[in-house]
Design brief:
Four copies of one chain form a homotetramer.
Chain A lengths: L3 E6 L4 H11 L4 E7 L8 H4 L17 H5 L6 E4 L6 H10 L3 E4 L9 H8 L12 E3 L15 E3 L3 H15 L9 E6 L14 H4 L4 E2 L7 H13 L6 E6 L6 E8 L5 H12 L5 E3 L17 E8 L4 E8 L3 H15 L10
Parallel strand pairs in A: 1-2, 1-3, 3-4, 4-6, 5-6, 7-9, 11-12
Antiparallel strand pairs in A: 7-10, 8-9, 10-13, 12-13
Helix pairs in contact in A: 1-10, 6-8
C-alpha cells in the first residue's frame, strides 16, 4: 500500500515533536512537510535531538497557509498549533480540498459563544464548525465521522474523563448530577515553557491545584457529557500540576443512584469490546500514569463506596499520546482504513 | 530556663529522623535518649548521615518499655512507632508518671471498635483512651488539653483537611453533607520502604490513587468532622501518591448551601487570628506544597464556584512537619509554656 | 519474510521488560516464549501493565533449561538473567543447536580468572568462552562475528565508553595511558530493587559515587581497550548514581599527546560512517542523556583543552536501549540479515 | 548580646532567599533591610511564600547604593547579586565604613586580568581587591582575615573541591599535577531561570556536561590551589548538570606519587580537627549529596587505587548552603565572634 503523504504544521512543541516521531516511523505514512515559523530552514534532527539518525533528512519549512495549501503532495495536514492560530490553516487547507487533523482547541466546541467565554476571543472560523467533528474515536456511535474533513482532537484532560463517563451517561448508569472530577497532570501538559514557574527548581517536589474554577477544558468536557446524557451537565473539575513530565490521572466521584458496580462494568465492557486503546482494570486496581506513558491507552476502573453511595472512577493516560499526538495518529489510521494500532504499539 | 529533657522511641523512620533533627536544635529541649531496636549501639550520626556534626554524641539505646520508663532523666517521651506498637510504651511511660506525645495512630480514635475496623486488630490499650487527646493545637477550644498526659498527634492527611474544615463545620458554614476530598501525598508519607513499589524507578514519573474507598485516615477525619458538626459526617476521601518526597495537598469540594465566600473567610480569620502556623491565602491563590516543605505551616484558600454552588478549598502542608514531627514539637512547646514557634522557624 | 521465532528467558527485570516490548512490535520477530521462574503462569500483561493490549496473549512459562532447549519452535534465545545464572541456559541452548544472545556478564570476558576476580565466583562455563563473541556491532572489524552462536551483549557503561574510545586507540590517536573516566547512570541501571537504598525517597535529589575503585564493568572496559590498543590498558573509572530513571553519560579525559581535534574527528567519521546508531556531535556540544532515551543511539563529541593538553570526550546513551535491550535487538537484526534498525526507530 | 543589624542586597534569587531565611532565624542577627530592584515595595512573604508567617513584617526596599550606604542601622551588608553588579555596592558600603560579605564572583580573584579572561568584562572595582579576602574559613591559616572589610564568599564548585585539596597541596601529599575533577550539580546552581533549557520537562530525567573546557569557577579553583601548592596548578575540570534541585558532588582523581592513604587522612584530620562543617568519611564510603542538603557541611573521603596509583577523592555539599548562603552566615559568625554554628544547625 502506498503510504499516505502528510504534513505537520507547528511541530516544535511537545505534542508536535511526538507527532513527528510517531509519523516518521509509521508504516503507512510519509511525512512530506514539517513546518515552523521559528525554525524554518533548520534540519529536524538539529531542533529535535532525540530524532538524530531518524529524521529522514527533513528540514523545517516556512508556515504560510496559502503556500502550504498549494502543495499537492500533501493530502492530510496535522495542526499542532495554539488555539486561535490553527483556524486560519484549517480554512486554507479545507479550501484546497485537504483533510485536517487539528490538535488545538479551535474546533472542539460547537458553540462559538462558549468558545469566546472560555478562550477570551471571538471564534476565528465559526463557518467551519459545521465541517468539524469532535473525534474521540471510541465514543463515536456511527461511522459517519470518518467522512468529515476537519477532525478536532480532544484535549488531554477530557480524554481521560470522557472515555470512562460517556458510556455511563448514555446508558443512564449516571444522571450527570453532582459529579466531582480531580485530575493530575504532568508538566508537559503546559507545553514548552520559558517561565520561572515551569523551571525545574520550581516544579520538582511541588504540587498545586490551578485553573479554578473554570479551566478551559471544562467547556468541552461538559458539552460532551451533556450530549451523552441528553441534557446539560455541569461538573466540578479541578486540575492539578504534579512533578512528572508525562501522564494524567483523573479521579471521578459520581453518585451511584442505586446502580451497581456490575451494571457499570457491563456498560463499559459492551462499549469498549475489542477496542485496542481502552483497558478496563478490575475494581480495586487503580491505574498508574506510568503504565500508560509511551502508549496510546486510557486505563480505568471503578469502586462503589457503600458508605457514601458514590462510584469512584480512576483513569490514567499519557497526556502526549492518547491525550494528544497518539490520538491524532489513531484518527489518521481510522480515516484511511489502516489498522487502528498502526504505528502506535 | 532549663531545657526539658526528653526521649524519642523508634527514631529510625522519616518522621523519627526529622523529630530528632528538630529537637536537637530546639533551644528549650534536651534530647536525653534516642532508642531503636534495630540500631541499638549505633551512633546517631552513623545511622542518620544528615546529622553528621550535629548529633551531640548520641547513640541509639535499646527499646525496652520498662527500662525506658525507669529513666528519671526523661520527662517527656515522643513515640515514633507503628500503630499497635506504640500503645505498650505509652502504658509504661504513663505508669511511671511521664508524658507521652504519640505520633502513631493508637490514640487518635476514641472508639476501640472503630480502631479495629480500620486497623484490623483489637485496640492495644483501650483503658488509656480516656487519658488521650487528639492534639491538633489550632482546633482546641479550651486550654484543658494541655493537662492531658497522652497526646495523640493527628495524621498527615487529616491535618491538611481538618484545619480548613473544622471551623467551617462548627460555624455551620458547611453542614458536612456531600464533601468530596482528594489528597496528593509525596512518597515519604509511606515511610522508609524496601519494596519494589516504592523504588525510585517505579515512583518517579508515576501518579496513582490508592486506598479506595476506606483509607485508614478516614476514621479520624470523620470523627473530628462529626464532633465539629455535632452530628455524624461521612466524606468521600481519595488519597493519591505522586512523585515528590515531601508535601501534601488536599482539594476539598463542599456544597456552599448559599453561604458566601466572605462568610467562609470571616470564620477562618476569627478561628486562626494570631496562629503562627496557619496561613490563609486569598481566594484564587492555590497553595503549593513546595512552599510549605521545611515549615510547620498549613496554607489554604477557597473559591466559590457559582456554576456548581460548591466551595473548592485547597490546602498544603509538609507531611513530615505539620503532618507529623513539626506538629509534635508544636504540641511539646505548648504543653511546656514555650513559645509556640520554638525550634520550628 | 517469515518472522524469526525467539524466546526470552528471565524477562521480569527492566532490560527484560524492554526487550519484550521491543520484540513484540518488531516486524521480523515472533515472540514464542517468555519465561520467568517467579511469574510462571502469569499473563504478560498482568506482570507488565505497560503492555496491556499489546502482549499478544503471551503467558510466562517456566524456566527449566532442558525443557526450553527442547522447544523446536524457538531458534534464538535471549537471556536477561543475572551473571552466574545465564551460563547454564547458554549451555543447554547451544547443545540443542540454538543461538543465544546473552545480556548478562557471563561471556563478556575472555579470561575466566578475570571473571573470578570481578564477579567473586568461578566462571560457570569456561568451555563455552571460545564460542562467545563480545558483540558491540559498531566495533567489529569483520563479518565473522555473525557466525558465532553465543553473543555477549556489552554492559551499559562499557558501551558508552568503548564506542568513542576504541577507534581512537586502534588509530593510535590515544595511547591508552592516563585515561580518567567518570560515568553517571540513572537508577534503572541497578535493576528492579526492593531495597531502602533504591527507594524513591532515598534516590530522589541524591547523587553519589559508588563501586570505587573496581566496578565490575571495568574488567570488560579494559579488556576491550587493551585489544584495541594492542597492549594492556588501565583506566581510572568512577561510576555515579544520579536521580533519573534511564540514561548514562560518560566524561572521558585522555591526554592528546599532540594529536589534534581534527585527527580525532577524522577517525570517528571513518569508523562510524553510515552507522545508524552512532551520532557524532560537533565539538562544544555535549550530549544530553535525555536526547537518547528511547533510542538505540550513542551520541558523543570531544573538545581539546589547550591548557591541559587533554581531550575531553563526552558520550550519552539510554542504558536500557543501546546499553542493553536495544543493542540485543540490533545484534539480532544483524545476525539475521534484517535491516539494522528494524524495530528500533 | 545585641543582635547584629544587617542588610541583604538582591535577595530574590535562590541563594538570596536562603540567606534571608537563615538570617531571619539567626539568634545573633537582626535583618534590618532586604532590597530588590524588581520587588521594591513587596512584602517579603508575598515574594517568598516559604517565609509566610516568618518574615517579621519585612518589605523589600529599593536598591540604590548611596541610599543604602547612608543607613546607619546596618553594619554588615550581604550582597547576593550577579558578578559585575556587586562591585558598585561594595564600593559604596566600604566608603561608608560598613562591612561587606559578597556572594558574587567580583572579589574572588586577585588578578583583574584573570577576572576579565573568565568573566568577559573589565573588573568593575580593581582598587578594592586589596581590601578583599577569599573567605573559605576552614582554609585560613591565621586569624588576620577577620579584620578584612570585604569578604568574598567562594563559589559552590570551588568549595567542594578546595576543602579536600588545599591541605593536601600544602602538605605536599599532592603536587598539583594531573588532577582531574568532575563535578555534578543540582539545577539551582544556575539560579532562578526563565529559560526553556531549565524547564522541568527539559531537566527532569536529563544529565549533561557543560562549560567545557573553561567554566568560570576554574579561575578561583586554580588560584587557590596554586597558592596552596606554592606554584601554578592547572586542573581538568568538568561540571555536569543533573536532575536534582540542590547538592553538588565532586570526584577528584590525583596521582598519589607514592603517598599513602594514611598520610592523606592524617593531613585531613589535622587540618580539620574540631571544625564543625567538615566531615571526613572513612575510605570506601562515598558522600551522598542528599545527606548534606540543608546543612552547612562538606563531606569527603578518599580511596587509593593501587592499580592506577591514583587517589580518588569524593566530596559532597549543599550548593546553596556551604556553597553559598550557609558559608556567608558562617563567615558572619566568625567575623563577629559568634559561635561558628550559630543559625546553621
Amino acid at each position: 500500500m502506498t503510504p499516505i503523504s502528510l504534513g505537520i504544521v507547528g511541530a516544535s512543541g511537545y505534542s508536535g515533536e511526538l507527532l513527528v516521531r510517531l509519523l516518521l516511523r509509521h508504516p503507512g505514512a510519509k511525512v512530506a512537510a514539517v513546518t515552523s515559523r521559528s525554525l524554518a530552514g533548520t534540519p529536524l534532527e538539529q531542533a529535535m535531538p532525540e530524532l538524530r539518525g531518524a529524521a529522514q533528512g527533513l528540514v523545517f519549512t516556512k508556515s504560510e497557509p496559502a503556500e502550504l495549501a498549494a502543495r499537492d503532495d500533501v493530502s492530510v495536514w496535522f495542526l499542532a498549533l495554539p488555539h486561535g492560530v490553527a483556524a486560519e490553516y484549517a480554512r486554507a487547507f479545507l479550501s484546497a480540498g485537504r483533510r485536517v487533523i487539528d490538535l488545538s482547541a479551535d474546533f472542539r466546541l460547537s458553540d462559538p459563544a462558549r468558545y469566546q467565554e472560555y478562550y477570551a476571543h471571538a471564534h476565528p472560523a465559526p463557518e467551519l464548525l459545521a465541517e468539524a467533528v469532535y473525534a474521540l474515536p471510541e465514543l463515536q456511535l456511527s461511522e459517519d465521522w470518518k467522512s468529515k474533513k476537519l477532525l478536532a482532537c480532544p484535549g488531554c484532560y477530557p480524554t481521560s474523563i470522557l472515555t470512562p463517563l460517556v458510556p455511563l451517561l448514555r446508558a443512564k448508569i449516571l444522571t450527570g448530577s453532582n459529579i466531582v472530577i480531580n485530575s493530575l497532570s504532568g508538566v508537559s501538559g503546559a507545553g514548552k515553557q520559558a517561565k520561572e514557574f515551569y523551571s525545574f527548581c520550581e516544579r520538582a517536589e511541588s504540587s498545586v491545584a490551578y485553573g479554578l474554577p473554570k479551566h478551559r477544558h471544562l467547556a468541552e468536557i461538559e458539552e460532551q457529557l451533556g450530549a451523552a446524557a441528553g441534557h446539560p451537565v455541569i461538573v466540578q473539575f479541578t486540575p492539578h500540576l504534579i512533578p512528572q513530565r508525562r501522564g494524567i490521572i483523573s479521579t471521578i466521584v459520581a453518585p451511584s443512584g442505586g446502580k451497581t458496580l456490575e451494571e457499570l462494568y457491563a456498560v463499559w465492557k459492551q462499549a469498549y469490546a475489542g477496542r485496542p486503546f481502552v483497558s478496563l482494570l478490575p475494581s480495586g486496581t487503580c491505574p498508574d500514569s506510568a503504565h500508560t506513558v509511551g502508549t496510546n491507552r486510557v486505563d480505568f476502573s471503578a469502586v462503589l463506596d457503600s458508605r457514601t453511595g458514590n462510584f469512584v472512577i480512576t483513569s490514567a493516560e499519557d497526556n502526549l499520546m492518547k491525550g494528544a499526538s497518539g490520538q491524532a495518529v489513531q484518527i489518521f489510521n481510522l480515516l484511511h482504513g489502516l489498522p487502528e494500532t498502526a504505528g502506535l504499539l
